[in-house]
Every structure is written in structure tokens, then in C-alpha cells.
Specification:
heterodimer; A: mainly alpha; 15 helices; globular; B: 179 residues; alpha+beta; 2 domains; 6 strands
């Protein structure tokens, strides 16, 4: 596979994830949640940045872009950018414009989601910036290599940090965390919680599998190919179960979109030795 | 362009690594990242979210007196469809973020030995508090609202579907006049 083909897979997975995310935001907007009286009222959220922007010009621009009327236009513009990313020829000026515009849209939406946003938005931003650098008119094979390393290492950092944070937690080490999370209405699942109730060793196994696999995830970059593929398969299954059990759909697309970059880095490192 | 890309991506990665550490000295700098460009990848750790948060409210009116507590339905149990497409999760996440921010404000006020009155003022004028109050007001207006003149909300923590532990209130607001 060449660099372009790796990027095509990243772009496809990223775009699918963004279609889901944007449609969710559109749905909430149509329900009035981004209006002045809604859950995500810009009039209130902007109070947090009032001290910085005040009545300045930037404040006014942000008001126009992020209040209820501006936000729907922003979402519509994001969808247009996504369509152009999928249909425009990579390395063309149209693709370059669409990808940089998408990055700005995502930055504004992320800023608007300072309450209620999650880690998948941040990984998606990392992917969007990398897609701009890697497939724009100014790209080169060297830049593409940097992008793959950037995405791959950010992904590895995410898994390792998460694993280390879990091993520091008593609830994770004791094996209670998985059951207790699945037992919530917010991120859990009634059926699975019922199945796991009272099964101490199963819970212990699940907690420690997540801890160990997350901490040692980056070793997939240097292990023999069949071990690396097994680690990535674990990651894929992990995110798939998180969708099914916890409803974390956006994480699945954002994180699996990093896997082609991880495979590139893995093969590149192995080709050096 | 090569150097520019290497510089931007390199700096971003480097700061992302530093961002994972929970140094006290970094807290103020981290707060400046309004957009959240630099990620903090500690999902469900070290303190996993093992409880659910609920907003309950009651209304009061001159004719009706104080009404019953009503829960704003936010948590929907997992189904096949909301696993794949789940817009409501953002509202749940907003509530979690708001409650965490309110708890932090309370802790900060206590650390600085603020009086109860000053702490209440601090809380009631904070963005997370106002967001919740706004949501309560909207929900009340959309329901078969009585002619209430005031609303009061309480944030409640419950401990899971299978748990028998009693839910406990976290923060209770005073009565607020409805515009």
C-alpha cells in the first residue's frame, strides 16, 4: 500500500464518524438545544470567555458564528466540506480549501462544546489537521510520513495514558470499575450489568485486560507483525464493544481511523531493521 | 512546507504528552486551552463514572404552593439504535461536566475559606449552574406548566441500575424567579 491508500482509509473512517457526529449535533439543534433556552445556550456558555473577548470584535464574530442561527450554518458548512473531501481530488486546491475549512469548523464546534464535548472530538481534530497536511496541494511524501507518525503516536499516547490512569485507580485494580460503569444508565447496559453482577473473577479479568492492553498498546509498533495485528484487533473489538454496550459510537470511528497510520508506522519501523 | 508541518505536528504532540501529567503548575495553563486542542486521554480513570446524575426540580406559585419534585429525563437505557446513533449522550456529558465543575468550585471556595454566602454567590453565577437552571426553566415551560412563579432544582447522584444504595442530593438551588 502507498501513502495515498493509507490516507484514503483514514479519510473514509474519519468521514463516516463525522457524518454521525454532525447528524447528532443537527438533531440536537432541531430540538432547540442550541437555542438561547436550550441545554447548550451560547448566551450562557459565552460568559466563560467574556473576560477575554468582552464586547470586542472577536466576541461579536463568535456570537454570529456560534449562536443558534450561526451554529446551524456552521454544521451545514461542515457537511459541505465533508462532501468535498470525499469527492474532490486529493492534492487539488479544492481539497485543500475543503480540508482547512473543515479544520476551522471543527475548532469552532469544539469551542462551542466546551461543556458536553468528549475525547473523540479531539482525536477527530487530530485526524482533520493530518488530512489537511497529508492530502493538500502543498503535501509531500515526507509530510505524509510526519502525519502518520503524528496520528499513530497520538493514538498510542491515548491508550497508554488511559491505561496508566486506570492502574492508579483502586476501582480498576480491584476489578469493580467495569461492572460499576456498566451498571450506570449514562454509559452502561442493564443486561450486561446483570450478567456481570457478582462475578468477581470475570470482572477482575475484564478490568486487568483493559489496563494491560491499554498500557502496552504502543508495543504494537515494534512487535512482530502477527502480534501487532492481534493488538489492533483487540483495539477494534474494544471500541466495537464500547459502541454496543456504552453507546460511545464516535470513539469507534475516531480511534479506528488512526489504525492505518499505526500500521504505516509499524511497517516503517520494521523496515528500518 | 515540510518544516512547517513538522514543527506544528511536533509541538502539538509534545504538548499533548506534557498535558497528560496532572501537575498543579499546569492547571492554570490548561485552563487557557478553551478549545481543547490538547487532549487529556484519561478515559474513565482514575475515577470512573460509576454513578448517574439526575436533575430534579419543583415549582412554586402564589396560588399553587410548592409542587412535587419532577425529574428531567436525561438517561435513556441502551438500545441497538442508540448504540449506533446517540445524540442524547451529549446532554448527559454536559450534565456530568457541569456537576464536576460545580464540585470543583465548591472545593475551591472551601479551600479559600469563603463564607457560605460568598460561595453560594460564586456557584449561582457560574456557567455550569446557569446552564442547568436554563435547562430546568426550558423543561418546565415545555411541560404542562402551572402558573409557577419560582423554580428550585436539585442535582442528585444515584449509584447504578442494580444498586440498592439510596440516591443522594449533591447541590440544591434556592428558589429562582421564573421570567
Amino acid at each position: 500500500m502507498n501513502n495515498f491508500e493509507y490516507f484514503r482509509i483514514i479519510l473514509l473512517l474519519f468521514a463516516i464518524g463525522q457524518v454521525f457526529t454532525t447528524s447528532e449535533l443537527l438533531f440536537l439543534h432541531l430540538k432547540g438545544e442550541y437555542s438561547t433556552r436550550g441545554f447548550f445556550s451560547w448566551k450562557i456558555i459565552r460568559l466563560d470567555i467574556n473576560t477575554i473577548t468582552g464586547d470586542s470584535r472577536i466576541g461579536g464574530i463568535l456570537d454570529n458564528l456560534l449562536d443558534s442561527r450561526g451554529f446551524i450554518k456552521l454544521l451545514a458548512f461542515k457537511i459541505v466540506c465533508l462532501i468535498f473531501l470525499l469527492v474532490a481530488a486529493p492534492y487539488s486546491y479544492l481539497f485543500t480549501f475543503a480540508s482547512i475549512a473543515l479544520v476551522f469548523c471543527m475548532l469552532l464546534i469544539q469551542f462551542r462544546s466546551m461543556y458536553g464535548g468528549d475525547g473523540s472530538d479531539q482525536m477527530s481534530l487530530i485526524l482533520a489537521v493530518s488530512i489537511f497536511f497529508g492530502l493538500s496541494a502543498f503535501s509531500s511524501p515526507v509530510i505524509q510520513k510526519y502525519c502518520f507518525y503524528f496520528i499513530g503516536l497520538q493514538s498510542c499516547l491515548a491508550y497508554t495514558t488511559s491505561g496508566v490512569a486506570k492502574i492508579l485507580s483502586k476501582k480498576w485494580r480491584s476489578g469493580n470499575a467495569v461492572y460499576e460503569i456498566f451498571n450506570t444508565g449514562s454509559y452502561g447496559n442493564k443486561t450486561i450489568a446483570h450478567l456481570l453482577k457478582g462475578r468477581k473473577y470475570v470482572n477482575l479479568f475484564l478490568c486487568w485486560t483493559v489496563i494491560v492492553m491499554e498500557i502496552f498498546f504502543p508495543i504494537c509498533l515494534i512487535t512482530p507483525i502477527y502480534i501487532s495485528i492481534a493488538i489492533l484487533l483487540w483495539g477494534f473489538t474494544f471500541h466495537f464493544l464500547n459502541v454496543a454496550i456504552m453507546g460511545l459510537n464516535s470513539f469507534f470511528w475516531a480511534f479506528t481511523a488512526t489504525y492505518p497510520a499505526i500500521i504505516f508506522v509499524m511497517l516503517h519501523i520494521q523496515s528500518q531493521f | 512546507m515540510d518544516t512547517c508541518a513538522a514543527f506544528i505536528l511536533g509541538i502539538w504532540l509534545l504538548i499533548s504528552i506534557v498535558w497528560q501529567f496532572q501537575f498543579k503548575s499546569l492547571t492554570t495553563i490548561k485552563e487557557l486551552d478553551f478549545i481543547g486542542i490538547f487532549p487529556n486521554w484519561t478515559f474513565f480513570a482514575p475515577n470512573p463514572g460509576t454513578s448517574d446524575y439526575h436533575i430534579i426540580y419543583r415549582s412554586a406559585g402564589e396560588d399553587t404552593g410548592i409542587g412535587e419534585w419532577i425529574e428531567i429525563p436525561l438517561i435513556s437505557y441502551r438500545t441497538c439504535s442508540n448504540s449506533i446513533w446517540n445524540p442524547e449522550k451529549r446532554k448527559v456529558k454536559l450534565l456530568i461536566d457541569c456537576i464536576n465543575a460545580l464540585i470543583k468550585t465548591v472545593q475551591k471556595c472551601r479551600k479559600e475559606h469563603m463564607s457560605e454566602l460568598y460561595m453560594t454567590q460564586n456557584l449561582c453565577t457560574s456557567v455550569p449552574y446557569l446552564l442547568i437552571l436554563n435547562a430546568v426553566t426550558k423543561f418546565h415551560k415545555n411541560s404542562d406548566a402551572t402558573n409557577a412563579t419560582h423554580l428550585q432544582f436539585t442535582l442528585v447522584e444515584s449509584f447504578g441500575i442494580e444498586s440498592t444504595e439510596t440516591a443522594k442530593p449533591i447541590i440544591s438551588s434556592p428558589f429562582h424567579r421564573v421570567a
